Amino acid sequence: MSDPGQRLRTSLAADTAATSGTDFDSPIAMEALRATRVLHAADQEPFPAPGRLRVVTVANQKGGVGKTTSTVNLGVALALYGLRVLVIDLDPQGNTSTALGVEHTVGTPSIYDALVGDSSLADVVHPTTASPNLRCVPATIDLAGAEIELVSVVAREYRLRRAIEGYVQSLPEDRRPHYVLIDCPPSLGLLTLNALVAGDEVLIPIQCEYYALEGLGQLLNNIELVRAHLNPGIAVRTILLTMYDARTKLADQVAEEVRSHFGELVLPTVIPRNVRVSEAPGYGQSVLTYDPGSRGSTSYVEAAREFAERGVHLAPVADPRPMGPPPPPPATAPMPVVRPQASATGSRADRSLAGAAFAGTDAAVLPVPTSVDEENR
Ligand SMILES: Nc1ncnc2c1ncn2[C@@H]1O[C@H](COP(=O)(O)OP(=O)(O)O)[C@@H](O)[C@H]1O
Ligand SMILES: [Mg+2]
Predict the structure, then answer these.
(1) Among 192, 193, 279, 330, fewest CB within 10 Å belongs to which?
(2) Average pLDDT score, the chain
(3) What are residue 80's phi and psi, to 5 degrees?
(4) Nearest one of 198, 195, 174, 203 to 84, comparing CA atoms
């Protein structure tokens, strides 16, 4: 496993050597130098393109763990370093849209129109100011009703998958995104289910705090069920440790525990707790554009580079993605039902939430099918 940030340090050391004896050795000058590298490095060292389109579902049913922050900053980093990226905001709060400076007031064409209405994704894609390579599908508050409105929609679990497939195939090859990043809401309802069915891989941000692993067992369980019944291609491929506070022993313990559980899935680079990261959305920006020389910014660049390098060896498929849902399971197959289970650290609250989402114990609120319904495939 490579040393986190080694590449950046090496290149910074080279810069320091090149500028030693000049005025460039003060901390401020070094930060300015780092900023320049972040903003202009695409010319010097673009990230490698993935072997095929990567549709990445950023999920964790816990709120406040860094899903939105990671989606935004990884997305901007990939785009600044030369890759085409589409970010889809699937959280009715619209925080991703805010952080990318994309309008998301009621009435703005948004992901709601593609999921519940007849719009294609192309109709609701917006440019961003962060990079011409980065486009965003915003979420408006309308999306809050989608969990219920989708219940009666045909093939409700496949709406997002089909929207992405249609969008990608409508574009000429040289304009298709390399990455689609989907920011999920903090729940395991029908929106997150759509994102898991649409994705090829899941990225789970884990906050380096107490309770970090709580509920994770349930999320993994649900991903397994989606894989078994709705999307055989989905798997957790990346864990990103966020909000690491080097002053606390706890952060180290959590990071160690996560690495011992998930091994190579965990990116070597850890995102530190950094005030610039939390300030950036207030200015409608990512931390890379708000304060490119900050530690938050350079860490996200390094994490994005590691993430991109993992995509290089993915085998291309004949066409970007096969159209439509996979064939329905035989009528006798067991239903996608999860019994709420105790994860090692899971609380009763999150066990029952996940159980309700997938077992349909509260069908009006968390409408996931409990039977194979031909009409809905
Ligand atoms: N590395 C970080 N350093 C400081 N604050 C952070 C960092 N990452 C996220 N935050 C802040 O933590 C809060 C929750 O992050 P967010 O990405 O919105 O989580 P989620 O999408 O999982 O709910 C936000 O206020 C965000 O600005
Ligand atoms: Mg969020």
Answers:
(1) 330
(2) 81
(3) -65, -25
(4) 174
Is residue 208 in contact with ligand 1, taking CB distance under 6 Å? no
Q: Is the dihedral of CA 127, 129, 34, 268 positive or negative?
A: negative
Q: At residue 25, does pLDDT exceed 80? A: no
Return the closest-CA partner of residue 266 out of 5, 1, 56, 70: 1
Kindly state the average pLDDT of the residues 115-125.
Answer: 96
Ligand 1 site, residue 134, Cβ cutoff 6 A: no
Q: Which ligand is nearest to the CA of 60?
A: 1
With b for 16 or more beta-carbon neighbours within 10 A and e for fewer, the 303-328 pattern comes to: bbbbbbebbeeeeeeeebbeeebeee
Q: Which of 88, 181, 278, 287 to mutate to test the pocket of ligand 1 (most atoms within 8 A of CB)?
A: 278
| Residues 240 and 205 sit within 8 Å (Cβ to Cβ) | yes
Segment 120-129 mean pLDDT: 97
Q: What is the mean pLDDT of residues 111-132?
A: 96
Mean pLDDT of 202-225: 91
Structure pTM?
A: 0.80
* Segment 316-326, tens digit of pLDDT: 765 445 545 55
* Of 314 and 282, the one with more pLDDT: 282
Q: Would you list the DSSP string of 228-277? A: HHT-TT--EEEEEEESB-TT-HHHHHHHHHHHHHHGGGB-S--PBP-HHH
The highest-level CATH class for domain 39-318+331-376 is: alpha beta
Confidence of residue 213 (pLDDT cuts 50, 70, 90): confident
User: What is the torsional sign of CA 73, 78, 81, 86?
Assistant: negative
Task: State the DSSP code for 208.
Answer: S
CA atoms within 13 A on the CB side of 288: 29
CA distances in angstroms from 54 to 7, 168, 272, 328, listed in the order given: 24, 12, 26, 24
For the stretch 245-277, pLDDT in tens is 989 999 999 999 999 999 999 999 999 999 999
